[in-house]
Amino acid sequence: MRIPHPILGLRDQSEFVYLGDACLLERPDGMQADALQKMTEYAYQRDNCRGLHRELWFHEQGDRAWLVVTRNTVTHEIVKVEFANEVASHD
Amino acid sequence: MTNRFADAPGIDVAEPVHFQFDNRTYVGYLGDTLASALLANNVRLIGRSFKYHRPRGVFSDGSDEPNALVTVLREGHPEPNTRATEIELYDGLKAWSQNAWPSLRFDLLAVNDWLSKFLTAGFYYKTFMWPARFWEAVYEPMIRRAAGIGRLSDTPDPSVYDKGYLHPDVLVIGAGLAGLVCSLQLAKGGQRVLLVDEHARFGGRLLFSANAKLRPWLDALVEEVLKHPNIQRLIRTVVFGSYDHGVYGAITRNTEHQAADPGVLPKQTYWTISAGHTILATGALTRSIAFPNNDRPGIMTMSAIEAYAVYYGALKGSSVALFISHEEGRRTALRLHALGVNIKAVIDTRSEALPLTEFPYFTGSQVVNTSGRLGLTGIQVRSSDGTFQWINVDYLGISGGYNPTIQLTCHQGAKPKWDLSIEAFRAADNRPDDQRCIGGADGAFGLGDCWQSAIHAAEAILGQSLHLVNPFNESEPLALQSEYVIYGHGPTFVDMQNDVTIKDIQLSHQEGMSSVEHVKRYTTLGMATDQGKHSNVLGLAALAQATGQSIAETGTTLSRPPYTGVSIGALAGQYRDLDFKPTRLTPSHQAATARHASFVEVGNWLRAQWFPLPHEKYWRETVDREVIAVRRNVGVCDVTTLGKIDVQGEDAAAFLNHVYANGFLKLPVGKTRYGLMLREDGIVMDDGTAARLSETQFVVTTTTANAVPVYRHMEYVRQCLCPKMDVHLISTTEAWAQFAVAGPRSRELIARLVACDVSNEVFPFMACAETHLRNGIRARLFRISFSGELAFEIAVPTRVGNAFFEYLLEIGKDLEVTPYGTEALSVLRIEKGHAAGAELNGQTTAKQLGLERIVSQTKDSIGRVLAGRDALQNDTACLVGLQPVTSSDPLVAGAHLVGLGKPIDAAHDLGYVTSVAYSPHCQSMIGLAYLKEGASYRGKRIRAVSLLDHQDIEVDVVSPHFVDPDGERLRV
Amino acid sequence: MDFSGWRVLREGLRGHTGWAPLWRAATPKKHYDVLIVGGGGHGLATAYYLAKYHGLTNIAVLEKNWVGGGNVGRNTTIIRSNYLLDGNQPFYELSLRLWEGIEQELNFNAMVSQRGVLNLFHSDAQRDAFRRRGNAMRMHGTDAEWLNAKAVRQMAPFLNYDNARFPIHGGLLQRRGGTVRHDAVAWGYARAASALGVDIIERCEVQGFDVTNGQVQAVETSRGRIEADRIGVAVAGYSSEVMRHANVRLPIESHVLQAFVTEGLKPLIPGVITYGAGHFYISQSDKGGLVFGGDLDGYNSYASRGNLPVVEDVCEGGMSIMPMLGRARLLRSWGGVVDMSMDGSPIIDRTQVGGLYFNGGWCYGGFKATPASGWVFAHLLARESSHPTASAYRFDRFAAGAMIDEKGQGSTPNLH
């Protein structure tokens, strides 16, 4: 696979480290009353969709940016790549 | 000279070449393959089949060869299962046949052929079950002995392999007519083209064609391609796989055509090609027709006959028959005849075909049987009138049509579709966007169509019309009448190498295994080294016949990478032996080597394990001395491998407060704090220290093993969870050489080094500072201790690390400063009861480590919430110390704990030993362990049991802090 | 019809006219007592054990493609029970014991070949972890042996002893581990289940569940609606997709695991060997191919194919531990879509939907579990209570904090 980095262009997948579903950006507040239940969901439950999947990749052998890659899990086609910190700041 | 036709373009008759096959010497010519040279020497028997050990010969002329597999000596080392059709001849080449004993001509296991009526598809699933213990003892060893084809040497492959990367605009695979024409037009249009071909020469099938008038045109085209600066060329290169986003894998055979290893080039180069577009100009393979006894040496594809007779000039003096079902077969027969090939008969399955008069021509006829045990002697022909006759021939060339070579279009999951107009599978429409098929690969079998498809592809990529005139205007229709299987008596092979017959496929269907995938798995159809290139469609046709469906309805199995077998050595490249992974050396490596240190792998690092003195005979002697030196005087250890991360920004403290389970907001400048890092699931991820150098700067340390994951995690927290914080991170592990200076006299030594005041009052336990060495070099100083002694860690720029280490040892001589390695480091920390990798194994909680109280409950740190889950809170295991009752007892890490007098079983398993050491301080083995209900066992006696080592010893459960439990030494 | 050597001889002499289909091609009935979704090893084994030992025969197995087309047909065929944790070890030991009797149980030769599984270790830390695991196995009554470097060399003289980046310090050996002819497992269970009256329905894809008042009533399939009292789902790789139809969200990600086989070679490798300092394990099939594999590709995927970085990583591992492999040729590679669970261990449990039961999360290790998975899932479906060896494989272990995390990697599925 080759991932189109927003600044650095097409980069080989071997430069990246994968983490998982971009729902990991939406960490619940740990101090709320229902934190245990929400944190359990957050840490363990996944949609695991077949088709377009937003997911986190770390450009470890590159600019060390975390990216949100929207990729089809059946065809592996990549349709969108964003900086995770930008996505996270907008939430 | 007598055994070749004149003017064969593939060989140089002025360059005779001597080679050996099965220890007999033959003569061939430069340009020959082993197959062509053997055929020219009238050697048709080359191998034995996998299951029935039937005699087999050359079937094709390329990488699709199913039969002629040999073991060849390359760079002095045997290479099994190598296709004779691809081995280029050189002087002194040695090759041997395979899978036959005692000899190729007389093979005892050919008895399987006589038993073949019992050894049908899947017979082994139905027998060898009684008595049960006979499977491992008798049956399986027997089967395994018969398994396999070639023999792999059990000594290391001596060859060198390399990896390379290419990034063309367009990758063109196949340098036949279509590939050459397309490449040239693309290059002229400004594209950077990479043109690859399996063979040593460009030209593809045209090289082998009996159509002599094409040759000058081809030569001119090849010359133009070779000269064009936009075309990069790779010969002897096979593109073996197609991967996501235009990535292809390819292998170039650099040296295998040469007698001796030139010592410069790697044997093979493995290329990763990232292409903008890819053109499959891979041509088509001649499809065989299956009929009884269709596997004898001398029976091959019509294209192979053409290649061996025309290009290599072989088959002179032999009689040849052709069995065909289309017009190109008829034209080929005429051309071969014109070249002087002795065409004994042409058997054309088409009733409406126009007979020829140059040789006997049977229309509406079939080959229904053959004779010749070790080589073809005759074929039996059934004429259109139903009569049978035997014709004596040496060779039979078969063509029942063509299969486009489209495997690369399937590698990403696109299933080929059956195209009735060409009676063959064509690439699926949902193949990857970057791929185009042209020429034979696109079903354009005629020259004119082939040329046109190449131009179309070039135009599509260039985005412009080229307005070229097709040089091949004569129409040459194929007029194919599909013909797959001639049913009759006698074994009718569809998969030659694996000996899959029509009967096997019928039986598979009879037993309910009718899906193509089931047939493949039940019969092993298409699973031989040719990966079904010849067998797949014939097998599907036989299955379709059995089920009464069409081939289109039957479907096909999916071709998977690689297209042809790829050496594991090539895929590994240079990453083997000592170069498997990079070796990271610590800054003081040179100084440690000079002191005869023993080294140990820690991840990719090599660390000094201990520093033996000349008189020391046993490693324990050395390690005990180093430990005692630290406890009594002062020792120095290189701890650079621990991860170091600089954390800077207005929110640096708030950030660490989120990442660590304990609090960091109130850590004063100039102070260091132990930091406990949890994963989000509440389990301990890592521990280390964070030193606050200023309001906005911290230096964080990690364990050696977790340096990379922790940095990654912290960047994740920073970018993904705390994007609005003003904080930045950088890993400085490689930038600073860091040394632990530990022991009661460490302050004295440190004071000699640095400019600042290091007295206990000014620089107390857990102090930190940015400072300078007395010579002005930058340094960072931390008063932290892993050993439990008064200790410092000092960091200097990596480039001066080795000199600094030497300097330390020099100026500390009067203090009896001692370098110590990882082993002593480990003993010291176990004596002190500090957790390390063995305790932080990804399964342990802060509670188990006895650190529950430092997990802050008043802030939202990573892992705090889930650490509170019931099962984790109710777990009673905790870290304890162990000391054998008999001090000489060999306590081992990985032993489990069992109560006195209790059975040794899982129900009574109390925990396990994590770390052990011989403690000079205790003068005994000691250990750390996780023990259930650990607190209640304190002061009691249990057993440490290692069934694997036949050990069962009594141990006392003690505090994990064997040395200075109150921490007084740290603070003096 | 019994299979035996005599039978093979007799059929050989009379032209093989007597062989019948291994299983009946069934058409769906309106209603079943138990429906198993997934005609792979686990689903078929479940159906077989239900029919054989729980007296239930009105059972159907629904398979969207062809029997055995999932991961039972695309794995590296290894069986072993060398687990560390209490939640796992007894279950995998049950599985190994069932493997040991599988031919006689099914009257089908699946070629269970117990030539041993050898885990190599290369550092003191790894040695200690292996010793902890080996002792745990022994305390569970499972066989495990400790080999020092010399004993490893005796057993496998062809490994890299002299020029290795990570020298071999020793190994943990389970002699009862080995390999099984994978496809035959699916066929054997299918045949045996069919003979007991189980309907095996191929090309029947589940497209929805009819859930009324919290109770599952029926499945909607590509071959129509089929009612059932109880439904067990065993579709590892596609668990999330199937369970989504019942609005059950899972602690699972789908990942692709590649595997590789070489051209056929004369016997070379005694048993299964795993490399502790690289991502590589290998065995040799009865046909002579070297079967090997390594790590996951590492990203969520439903495509049963992988990419080159893992191919290289595996081959590098292979060459570094077994440098004779250089001239063995990779013949075929393939990818299987696996359920990677959040702690690396499976889930066999009831769901929040009444009558709907789940079996999945097998990560890359489902094949070896096939018989026990069927055994305990049948138990759960028939008795509505967990089998003792699978009592830890519950959904609620994550909420409770009772993870079964052999590798200690936490809730990052691709690291297990």
Describe this structure in words.
- The complex is a heterotrimer of chains A (91), B (972) and C (416).
- By secondary structure, chain A is an alpha+beta fold.
- Chain A has one domain (2-90): Folate-binding superfamily (Folate-binding fold), CATH 3.30.2270.10.
- Helices cover 19% and strands 36% of the residues of chain A.
- Chain A is built from two helices and six strands; from the N terminus they run βββαβββα.
- A four-stranded antiparallel beta sheet of chain A has the order 3-4-5-6. In chain A, strands 1-2 form a two-stranded antiparallel sheet.
- In chain A, β4 (52-58) and β5 form a beta hairpin.
- The radius of gyration of chain A is 14 Å and the shape is globular.
- The N and C termini of chain A lie far apart (29 Å).
- The model of chain A has no long low-confidence stretch (mean pLDDT 97).
- With 972 residues, chain B is α+β, with helices and mostly antiparallel strands.
- Chain B contains 26 helices and 51 strands.
- In chain B, the strands form 13 sheets. In chain B, strands 42-43-44-41-35-45 form a six-stranded mixed beta sheet, sandwiched between helices. Chain B has a six-stranded antiparallel beta barrel with strand order 46-49-48-47-50-51.
- In chain B, α4 packs parallel to α10 (447-462), α7 (302-311) packs parallel to α8 and α11 packs across α12.
- The longest helix of chain B is centred in the middle third of the chain and has 16 residues, at 447-462.
- Chain B is elongated, with a radius of gyration of 38 Å.
- Chain C is an alpha/beta fold.
- Chain C is 28% helix and 27% strand.
- Chain C contains eleven helices and 18 strands.
- The longest helix of chain C is centred in the C-terminal third of the chain and has 18 residues, at 366-383.
- Chain C is globular.
- Classes of the chains: A alpha+beta (91), B alpha+beta (972), C alpha/beta (416).
- At the B-C interface, β6, α3, α11, α12 and β31 of B face α1, α5, α7, β12 and α9 of C.
